[in-house]
């Protein structure tokens, strides 16, 4: 832990806060002030208490670094095409049967690898009533939308009253059958998951909470209590994680994360390849390494703990699975399969095993 005593429990937001808390050296103040002119910082007390040193797996995720001002050629300000796919403010429509609703662009903490890092922050604000109603009207007018995903920002930063108002509006749409809430709050600021908040989530729709968790240490007793409060309402909690260099990019750290999630009754859902947001190259893990990591865990962890490794194709083209492959083919026929130890085994399926590949156009 840092030698400098931390201040009274409050969210760390400024470079001065970080220096006073022992999470940044005085000599870095000028460089970090330049980072702060571009990207917000917020580290709630519950998350700050987990940081043993600034570059540990917890601190690395949330403490600003001058490297954030270095932008590589493949990085872009809107890496997954949210802006181009937003028909009205607060809505992103990428897939035919679902849409994102972003009622606010504020988070409990600001991850240094966030793909929306150029949009979120304390000035991101909340959709006002008129803008929220326009977004809800868009959803009402699109009956093909069966699933609405609340994201942002972090929707759990809303008041219970406003959350309830949005949930009630969505469940009143006959075509909406599923609501998903993507949130970092259960691990970042678990005290926000109050009984009033979980009561606001009660709905006749199928409700799912997707918690963003990147390291086993994030699942503190307080975080587990917050998750249990949600689960006690018969709301399933699943998890998404981002593969991050220096955070969860070894077989041991990834295995510990997956096991900790399952022990909290949270099903790992997605393991995301890092989106190429500006200034995030220090977190990047090559896809081939990610595939090897997952392959190393096959057979070591239960299938309940097995996430889908996905790449969100830059430009808004959607997510695709990129996990390790185990089938072996020859002349469009499956001829073998590799086991978790990498040994090949013959598969005999006859002519029915021919792969139906599309013909090339002439």
Automatic annotation (TrEMBL):
Pfam families cross-referenced by the UniProt entry: LAM_C, Radical_SAM
Bias type Basic and acidic residues, positions: 340-352
Keywords: 4Fe-4S, Iron, Iron-sulfur, Isomerase, Metal-binding, Pyridoxal phosphate, S-adenosyl-L-methionine
Ranges where the Radical SAM core domain occurs: 93-305
Swiss-Prot/TrEMBL cofactor(s): [4Fe-4S] cluster; pyridoxal 5'-phosphate
Region (Disordered): 340-362
Matching PROSITE patterns: RADICAL_SAM (PS51918)
Top-rank taxon, per record: Bacteria
Xref: InterPro entries: Aldolase_TIM (IPR013785), LAM_C_dom (IPR025895), Lys_aminomutase-rel (IPR022447), Lys_aminomutase/Glu_NH3_mut (IPR003739), rSAM (IPR007197), rSAM_sf (IPR058240)
Family assignment from sequence similarity: Belongs to the radical SAM superfamily. KamA family.
Protein name: Lysine-2,3-aminomutase-like protein
Species of origin: Novacetimonas pomaceti
Phylogenetic placement of the source organism: Bacteria, Pseudomonadati, Pseudomonadota, Alphaproteobacteria, Acetobacterales
């Amino acid at each position: 832990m840092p030698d400098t005593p931390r201040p009274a429990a409050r969210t760390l937001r400024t470079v001065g806060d970080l220096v006073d808390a022992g999470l940044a050296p005085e000599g870095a103040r000028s460089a970090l002030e330049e980072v702060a002119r571009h990207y917000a910082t917020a580290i709630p007390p519950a998350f700050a208490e987990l940081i043993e040193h600034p570059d540990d797996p917890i601190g690395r995720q949330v403490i600003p670094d001058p490297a954030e001002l270095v932008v590589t050629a493949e990085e872009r300000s809107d890496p997954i095409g949210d802006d181009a796919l937003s028909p009205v403010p607060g809505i992103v429509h990428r897939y035919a049967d679902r849409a994102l609703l972003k009622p606010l662009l504020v988070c409990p903490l600001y991850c240094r690898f966030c793909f929306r890092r150029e949009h979120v922050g304390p000035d991101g604000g909340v959709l006002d009533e008129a803008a929220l109603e326009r977004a809800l009207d868009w959803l009402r007018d699109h009956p093909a939308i069966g699933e609405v995903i609340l994201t942002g920002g972090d929707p759990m930063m809303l008041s219970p009253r406003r959350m309830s108002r949005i949930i009630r509006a969505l469940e009143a749409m006959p075509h909406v059958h599923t609501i998903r809430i993507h949130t970092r709050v259960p691990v970042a600021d678990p005290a926000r998951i109050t009984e009033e908040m979980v009561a606001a989530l009660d709905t006749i729709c199928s409700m799912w909470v997707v918690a963003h968790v990147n390291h086993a240490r994030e699942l503190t007793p307080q975080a587990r209590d917050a998750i249990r409060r949600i689960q006690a309402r018969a709301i399933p909690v699943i998890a998404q994680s981002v593969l991050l260099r220096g955070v969860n990019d070894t077989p041991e750290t990834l295995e510990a994360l997956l096991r900790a999630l399952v022990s909290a009754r949270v099903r790992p859902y997605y393991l995301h390849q890092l989106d190429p947001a500006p200034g995030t190259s220090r977190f990047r893990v090559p896809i081939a390494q990610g595939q090897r990591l997952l392959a190393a865990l096959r057979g070591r962890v239960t299938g309940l703990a097995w996430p889908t490794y996905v790449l969100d194709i830059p430009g808004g083209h959607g997510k695709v699975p990129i996990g390790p492959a185990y089938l072996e083919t020859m002349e469009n026929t499956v001829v073998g399969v590799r086991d978790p130890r990498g040994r090949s085994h013959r598969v005999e399926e006859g002519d029915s095993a021919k792969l139906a590949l599309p013909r090339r156009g002439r």
